[in-house]
Each structure stands twice: as structure tokens, then as C-alpha cells.
Specification:
194 residues; 28% helix
């Protein structure tokens, strides 16, 4: 049995994300070393992500979004060719962090000038994602669980959410999302920039 390479669509998304990350770093006039110091991400990982040799994890993209003052949806929206007011379900950008079992769908049509966005998230059973900081400090989030169960920790406060539950939070520090049940957790996240 031969091993399969990366999906061509995933490879193209990784290449566009890498190019955008390199462009943002150049706009700020930072070396890889300076960005590594600001983000806490190793120079090697940054270099490999910019060259699309690796697919950046959710945690790495979150750290970079924090440094650049963007939400993840904004960053992912910036790699789209042309913003549109309507995005059909089949055309919504899906990004996967295979290492953590996280799948993220950008539901809202991308637009840099808007403060709000909708994201669909799916976490595989046992998936656990920790962010050490929000991409934008003071980010308002409304998390509505559609299926399964989630344990969400905001700072030092933990919450268990089951299907139908909704948590409103303002994020200034670390957060953690963990699939708390035996099956996938699926949720909608409404994000509003301050």
C-alpha cells in the first residue's frame, strides 16, 4: 500500500497562507528571529510555514494572528482571491489542523472591513486545543454547541456545554476547547472584534 501525499486543495491553501504570512512579516519589516521572539513560535516553524513545507497548526496561526492583530478568519479571508457578499456552503473555506483533530469552516463571506463573523468548528473525540492568548485582545465570542459536548476554559473558569448550550465570553487570556464526549463536537462560533 503506497502512502498518499497531501490533498492538492490543502496544499494550495497552505501555500496561500504561507505566502500571506511571509507578506505580513515583510510589511512589518521583521526578520524570522524578530517574529519568533514576538510570537513564541520557533524560527524553523515560521520559515517552514511561510514556505508551505508544513501546515501551520491552529495554535501557531493563533499566535501569529495575535502578533498581526487579526482574527483567524481575517487571515484566512485574506488568502481568498476576491471577497464576495455571498458564499455558498460548497465554497466556504475549510481548514484542518490534523494534529489536533480540529476542523474549521469559515461560514461568513470574508471581508476585512467587518467586525463580526461566523465560524463552524468540529472537534474529534478527545481533541484538545489550547490557545495561550486571543488573536485580538478583548475579542467577543458566542459559542453555540450544535452536537456533542465541549469543555471550554476561559482563563481559570471552566464550562461544560452540551448540545443547545451557548457561552458568551470576552477573551483576554488563555482559552482551551476540548471535545468532552464520545462523539464529535460541532459548534458555531460568532466572533466580534472589539
Amino acid at each position: 500500500m503506497r502512502s498518499e501525499g497531501p490533498d492538492p486543495v490543502d496544499a494550495r491553501i497552505d501555500a496561500r497562507i504561507g505566502a500571506r504570512l511571509a507578506e505580513l512579516r515583510a510589511q512589518h519589516g521583521w526578520s524570522l528571529g524578530e517574529l519568533a521572539e514576538r510570537s513564541g513560535v520557533s524560527r524553523s516553524t515560521l520559515s517552514r510555514a511561510e514556505r508551505a513545507e508544513i501546515s501551520a497548526t491552529a495554535a501557531v496561526l493563533n499566535r501569529l494572528c495575535h502578533v498581526y492583530g487579526r482574527t483567524m478568519s481575517q487571515l484566512l479571508g485574506e488568502v481568498e482571491a476576491e471577497p464576495a457578499p455571498l458564499v455558498r456552503a460548497a465554497e466556504q473555506q475549510v481548514w484542518q489542523d490534523r494534529a489536533s483533530g480540529f476542523v474549521r469552516r469559515s461560514v461568513s463571506p470574508p471581508h476585512a472591513g467587518l467586525r463580526g463573523e461566523l465560524v463552524e468548528g468540529r472537534l474529534a473525540p478527545g481533541a484538545d486545543i489550547a490557545y495561550d492568548r486571543p488573536p485580538v485582545s478583548g475579542l467577543e465570542q458566542h459559542l453555540w454547541v450544535l452536537e456533542g459536548a465541549l469543555e471550554v476554559t476561559v482563563g481559570d473558569t471552566g464550562h461544560r456545554l452540551d448540545a443547545g448550550d451557548c457561552l458568551r465570553m470576552r477573551v483576554f487570556g488563555p482559552t482551551r476547547f476540548r471535545c468532552a464526549g464520545p462523539r464529535e463536537a460541532r459548534y458555531v462560533l460568532a466572533v466580534v472584534r472589539p
